Amino acid sequence: MFDTLARFIVQHRWVTIAAWLIAALAIVPFAPRLGDVTNSDEASFLPDSYESAQADDLARTAFPDRSGATALLVFSREDGTRLTATDQRQVGAVVQDLNAAGIDGVRGAQTGAPESLSPDGKLQLGQVGFEGSSGEERVMDAAETVRDEAAQALEGSDLEVGMTGDAAIKADDADAHSTAEMTVGIATIGLILLLLLVMFRSPVAALLPLASIALVFGIASSLIALTAQGLGFDVSLDLPPLLTVVLFGIGTDYILFTLFRYRERLRAGERDPDAVVHAVGKVGEVITFAAFVVIMAFSALGLSELGSLQTMAPGLVIGVAVMWLAGVTLVPAVVAVLGPRVFWPSKSWQTTPTKSTYRRIGGLVSRRPAVMALASGGALLALAGGALFYTADYDSINQLPSDAESRQAYEQLRESFPAGSITPTQVYVTGDQPIDQDALAALARDSARPEGVSAVKEPIYSPDGRTARIDVILADNPYSNAALDAVDGPIREAAHESGAGDQVLVGGQTASSVDIRDATNRDYLVVFPAAALAIGLLLAWLLRSLVAPLYLLAAVMLGFSATLGVTVGAFQGLFGETGLKSTLPVIVYLFVVAVGTDYSILMAARLREERRAGSPPRVATARGVEHAGPAIAAAGLILAGTFTSLLLTGIASLMQIGFAVSIGILVAALVMATILVPSLTALLGRWAWWPGHRDTGDTGDGEDEGGPAYDDSRAGAVSVPADRPS
After folding, report:
1. Is the peptide bond before 119 cis (omega within 30 degrees of 0)?
2. Same domain flag for 553 and 626
3. Is 157 within 8 Å of 75 (Cβ atoms)?
4. pLDDT digits (tens, 9 = 90+) for 202-255
5. Residue 186, domain member (yes or no)
6. Is residue 98 part of a domain?
7. Best exposed site among 335, 402, 471, 658 by fewest CB in 10 Å?
């Protein structure tokens, strides 16, 4: 099938390239930007079945004038001393001016209440209400305008102001992600270009992937935005930078697989266009199944209850699918046009190295498979121990860059106010009949407050009197695990058992984080096994074996555990972080399992190809590692390098993802796929391919199991004429 496709593409190379260019011109200019369909409000992605989502719906219905996002203006003196009476009047004037400014999206601002002044007299708060939720673009734009207007009003005075609260945090988060997307794009392209130049010593081989992938990236991101717009869903802010590294990384991998195999055929003396056809015919199947594995893994995100993860599925699936299509059509067409000139001006492609690293590794694995399996597996198992200390972090403030205004203003606020002042938890009491206001007021004043509560505000009633809202100020950082535990435990229990109305709901940002935590824990039990099962079935189909998929998946799972262990040790241990992003294990699991399986497929397919050619198991192992190892290592280094670009974003969640996935890919490429998997395959011999071992070149008597090991000292240089036609 792929030989036929490759021959067709090579014969119609210019038509294929033209078709891709026409597709780009027809789609990209008329599609929305991917940034137009993003949403920074993670709580908005919660299903309606969760209590916090129900509380938000009730708030919009019963308190339409109070249900929008809020922010806090934190006023202080530049010298850090107590605010004078004159200062307080100036703060009140600034807030009045904001109300009079008629800023679009702003419902109103207020200050001056006794509780707006901190106990130490150093801070005064102004509360700003917005029309809409914190993740809406209109609200974020309004927050930026309020921030600018307030700062401008204080120019030349002794006062300064910072904005924090949910609306400000979301605005800063969106700005940080916008900057991160540009940073990641530039760093990814630069890193790939540098690595390819080092590997091939050819500007053509370095620029080919970048030009091809840039074209594919434009088409894929436009198709994703069109899909989101057409189906009416938003995507997480994390998708654009992740999509950049995924497409450039995986796309470069697919191109490398083709170039390495093409170079191998040239070194074997094959001429164009047969060398391109042969290379693409062999690699096409591997690329196809590798892409299918990644697509199956990312499709498992569709089973998530969190919309932020769920809506990543179509985006990543579309991106990888378009990249796969380019890998088996556009890339072969371009290589066919360039021929050996793709490696210009380097001459190294003409000669096979006589002392390659992976020839030595292959020889070692073939001679000592048990030792290599124990050493590599034992090392991964030791690293996996760190995963036992993983702690989830739901603090959206800590995810921001350290210079973000909302983060700095919050740190200032918590020095003088209860930490929970930034975003109170709301308790909603509702019923078919008007609420007994005297009884509810007495309940709010009850001194026997649940643990974790700093203060309780007076109830606010809806116009029809059938719904009340009580603001609860938490004692801890409302994004911390301590606050989440307080809301999930004693606060919700006390609210539900109060009997204050027909229905009592606990909402607000902390309650949303509690529900996000529950949804994430549920996803671990659904997404993990679903992805593993899908990939296992795909491996069984590809390898025609029931045994190989088992140890391949086991190796991949061990690689994931080791990756998580190293990440925990780095961030929670070395860097002193309180925890890791709550969705990190799901994202890392899918990336590491998918990419690790890709590399294992490439290695297993090469091992099976050598066995089909009649080589004994250990000789096949050595040759498989020798030929597939360099491509896997190069692909792993480049893909890991693209993810390290996320470390430059300054956003904690993206930095953690970048670090973890980079480590996971390196583990998969340099340890798992090139040492552990071939070692296990050599140990199992023909049984690795059971029940399909009849087509692997075995005679059936198993005598070749103990045959001679591969001689890695043999000469292997094959010269290729430099004037080979293109």
Report:
1. no
2. yes
3. no
4. 888 888 888 888 899 899 999 999 998 888 888 877 788 888 878 888 888 888
5. no
6. yes
7. 402
Domain termination site, one of 330, 352, 374: 352
Clarify whether residues 662 and 541 are in a common domain.
yes
User: pTM value?
Assistant: 0.78
Alpha carbon distance 635, 645 (integer Å) = 16
| Same domain flag for 348 and 361 | no
Closest C-alpha among 478, 454, 523, 371 to residue 46: 523
Do 240 and 104 fall within a single domain? no
Q: Is 475 exposed, middle or buried (0-12, 13-18, 19+ CB in 10 A)?
A: middle
Residue 94 counted as domain residue: yes
Place of tokens 């801070």: 123
**Domain assignment of residue 484, given as a range:** 424-507
Is residue 177, in this structure, part of any structural domain at all? no
Beta bridge partner(s), residue 163: 73
Average pLDDT score over residue span 681-690: 83
Cis previous bond, 691, omega within 30 = yes
Q: Please report, rounded to a whole number, the percentage of residues in the chain having pLDDT higher than 90.
A: 31
Task: Work out whether the CA dihedral 130, 135, 138, 141 comes out positive or negative.
Answer: positive
- 532/667 same-domain check: yes
User: Do residues 283 and 328 share a domain?
Assistant: yes
Structural tokens at position 620:
């096949």
Distance of CA 197 to the CA centre of its chain: 28
Beta strands in 613-716 (DSSP E): none
The more confident residue out of 499 and 681 is: 681
Q: Tell me the DSSP string of 624-645.
A: HHHHHHHHHHHHHHHHHHHHHG
Q: Are residues 337 and 443 in the same domain?
A: no
138-153: pLDDT as tens digits? 999 999 999 999 999 9
Question: Of the candidates 165, 637, 573, 644, which has an alpha carbon nearest to the alpha carbon of residue 406?
Answer: 165
- CB neighbour burial string for 292-326, b if at least 16 within 10 angstroms, e if fewer: bbbbbbbbbbebbbbbbbbbbbbbbbbbbbbbbbb
Is residue 551 domain-shared with residue 685, that is, in the same domain? Answer: yes
Q: Which two tokens stand for residue 596?
A: 């690790």
Cα 42 to Cα 177, 232, 237: the distances in Å are 14, 17, 9
Q: At what angle do helices 2-11 and 312-328 cross, to 10 degrees?
A: 70
Residues 527, 301 contacting (CB under 8 angstroms): yes
